[in-house]
Amino acid sequence: MTANGMPAPGFAASAPCAPATGNLVPLMHEIRHALTRWLEQGEKRVIDLRSIPLAPGEEDRLLEQLGEGEVTARLSIQGPSDIIETRYPGVWLVTHYDENESIMGRFIEVCEVPGILTSQADDIRAGLERLKDQLSNAETTA
Amino acid sequence: MSKDKTLGETLQERGVSRRSFLKFCATTASMMALPPAMIPVIAATLEKLRRPSVIWLSFQECTGCTESLTRSHSATIEDLIFNTISLDYHHTLQAASGSAAEQAREEAMQENYGNYILVVDGSIPGENNGYSTIAGISNKDMLLEVAAGAAAIVAVGSCAAFGGLPHADPNPTGAVSVSDLIKDKPIVNVPGCPPIPAVITGVLVQFLTFGLPELDQLGRPAAFYGNSIHDRCYRRPFYDKGLFANSFDDEGAKKGWCLFKLGCKGPTTYNACATTKWNDGTSFPIEAGHPCLGCSEPDFWDAGGFYKALSIPTEDIGKTAVYAGTAGLIAGAALGASLRARKQSAVKNHERVTIDDLDEES
Amino acid sequence: MTDTEFLLWVRGPAFSAATFIMCAGLVIRFLEIFLLGRKAELAEARGSAAAGGFRTMLIRFIPDAGSFQRSGFTIVSGYIFHIGLFIVIFLFVPHILVFEAVSGLSWPGLPSNIIDATNVVTMIALVGVLIHRIKDPVMRMLSEFNDYLVWFVTFLPLLTGYLAFHRVALSAPMLIGLHILSVELLMVLFPFTKLSHAFTLWMARWYNGAIAGYKGVQS
């Protein structure tokens, strides 16, 4: 089990010489550059982890290095999604699962807060309508 | 387009929040191998999408492609069937059977003539039309009929794209691919045996969102088939260092060294296996210790053997060399004898060596 | 014909045909040479022909001072590209697999990046050799079509090998196919051009050494 409670691939622990592609360090540098750009220009960066060929076990090492910070959010949106601020503020790990807890996508977002965490205008509007309905029902029955 | 409601309206009606929709767009972008910057574009396009009618024809196939598709978790098959497309005909997945099913197909064709998408898996017997039939209609006739009214055709799996297993030597049914029979419609080939589930759905969603994708010389979407396995393989550093496994389960194999010697076709195979992988990114054949078969390339069954390395000649060269040596001995003996005779007669006749003799090549 | 079909053809019937022509051709050439026979040596032996023969086969690798002064460039660049060819052909693992498939013999190879660097050095040496052949007046006068042809069919596999390894411009099956095809061209021309020196040089050295050894003089 990794820090975020995600199941580790079965063989990783027993592969002592699991070959590394050496993608970890360049990836961390990319995150470093993104953080600098955010601070200097307010530019957000999203990295799709699925697009990078990682050797078995390397993704786990990456997640270990990023660690966990102050925020952990679990969203229920057609299957769960985990949003975790890593030990580096501004570096968020967004993992999307389907209803069977299988991973559908994993992104590293360098920004203030991942867009999907904020409330969406359409949803707010729909919720407002529901609230108005509920209040008018409450008034008629009161 | 078949249904009047857009995808956005359908989702709203079902109470699917915009947040959920954004999640779908993000995972779809990832699966289509598009950069995250495209997510807002995908969201905007999918929102306004009107669900097209899709007719899925299965010909000489093993149903592996449908099995692969139903294992797809990103843009799950449910998402696909209920939200993005209207799957009006599919042997394995549809509830109807017999004449009711054929009627559904004909209705869908009529209602959406010129606009429906035709998805084909399985190869088609090109000549003798009796080898594979559905409801008494030969595969070839059905394909030609349905293709006539299709907006585009997606050939899923190596059988539909290149002929696949039925096309392998000696090809008893005369199997051909979709592009061998249809010449006047855009065809997108999604080969693989089977194709990666995420690639099947990715191509379908990409096609619905952005239209015909960029295709390579074999008609495959460049987004998924643009790189060879060799170029994205995590074992590439071992190839470069000259560290190879010599046999299955030997020391090199256990250390995860390159499988070139075991016949890996990675260098000549274009697919997304090394990055997208299988079973939601769990692994792919090379990672599991087996050399790539090259299953997304044409005629991979007859490509010289799964366990014969790419650099090795496919025929028995040792035998050829022996035959050649023998033939050479006979011819050489004859030639040598005649040359020797000529020399001896020249000596006997006291012939002189001239400048022309020295100038001769052989 | 698709790229894959082309690759299968060069790995299949084309390779068999090239092997047949090369092996039969070499055997015919050897028999042509041997069956001509030699004049009987009527004088008494004053030394060992065999010892002279063996010695000369190896000693000739060392150029004498005079040759070096006259054609230093040819000797140095010649050594470079011959050694380079040896390394690239016999110590690259995918090539070793071909030899293993044909003969059953196998040996360890070098890392692929070293082979790549050696390939580049070899190609440069060959280009240097060609330039020298064209610019040096004596070489230019002596050279004929066959000399340039032989240079070309030697250079082509190195170039196509480089392109295939680095996957430049064309698809992988096409590049590998072109590389194997260029080797087949080399194989087919081998027995019928000066390329056969790879084998005949041993015979020539042996005979020169044997004749001198029989006479009891150093060769």
Short synopsis of the structure:
The complex is a heterotrimer of chains A (142), B (362) and C (219). In chain A, 34% of the residues lie in helices and 21% in strands.
List keywords for this structure.
heterotrimer, A: 142 residues, alpha+beta, Ribosomal Protein S8, Chain: A, domain 1, five-stranded antiparallel beta sheet, 3 helices, C: 219 residues, mainly alpha, 11 helices
Could you explain how this protein is built, in words?
The complex is a heterotrimer of chains A (142), B (362) and C (219). Chain A has 142 residues and is of the alpha+beta class. Chain A is built from three helices and five strands. In chain A, strands 1-5-4-3-2 form a five-stranded antiparallel beta sheet. In chain A, strand 3 (80-85) and strand 4 form a beta hairpin. The longest helix of chain A has 21 residues, at 121-141. Chain A is elongated, with a radius of gyration of 19 Å. With 362 residues, chain B is α/β, with parallel strands linked by helices. Chain B has three domains: 7-221, Rossmann fold (3-Layer(aba) Sandwich), CATH 3.40.50; 227-314, Cytochrome-c3 Hydrogenase, Chain A, domain 2 (Irregular), CATH 4.10.480; 318-359. Chain B has a five-stranded parallel beta sheet with strand order 2-1-3-7-9, sandwiched between helices. A two-stranded antiparallel ribbon of chain B has the order 4-8. In chain B, helix 2 crosses helix 3. In chain C, 77% of the residues lie in helices and 0% in strands. Chain C has 219 residues and is mainly α. The longest helix of chain C has 24 residues, at 13-36. Chain C has eleven helices and no strands. Chain C has helices at 3-11, 13-36, 49-59, 65-70, 72-90, 93-103, 112-135, 137-142, 145-166, 172-189, 197-215. Chains in contact: A-B, B-C. The A-B interface holds A 9, 15, 17-19, 21-22, 46-48, 50-56, 75, 77-79, 81, 94, 96, 98, 100, 102-105, 107, 115-116, 120-123, 126 and B 12, 16-20, 22-24, 26-27, 29-31, 33, 35-37, 39, 73-74, 76, 232-235, 237-238, 255-256, 274-276, 280-283, 287.
Class computed from helices, strands and strand pairing of chain A: alpha+beta
Helix and strand element order of chain A: HEHEEEEH
CATH class of the domain at 19-116 in chain A: Alpha Beta
In terms of quaternary structure, the protein is heterotrimer
Low-confidence stretches of chain A: 1-18
Spatial gap, N to C terminus of chain A: 53 Å
Which range best describes the helical content of chain C: under 10%, 10-25%, 25-40%, 40-55%, 55-70% or over 70%?
A: over 70%
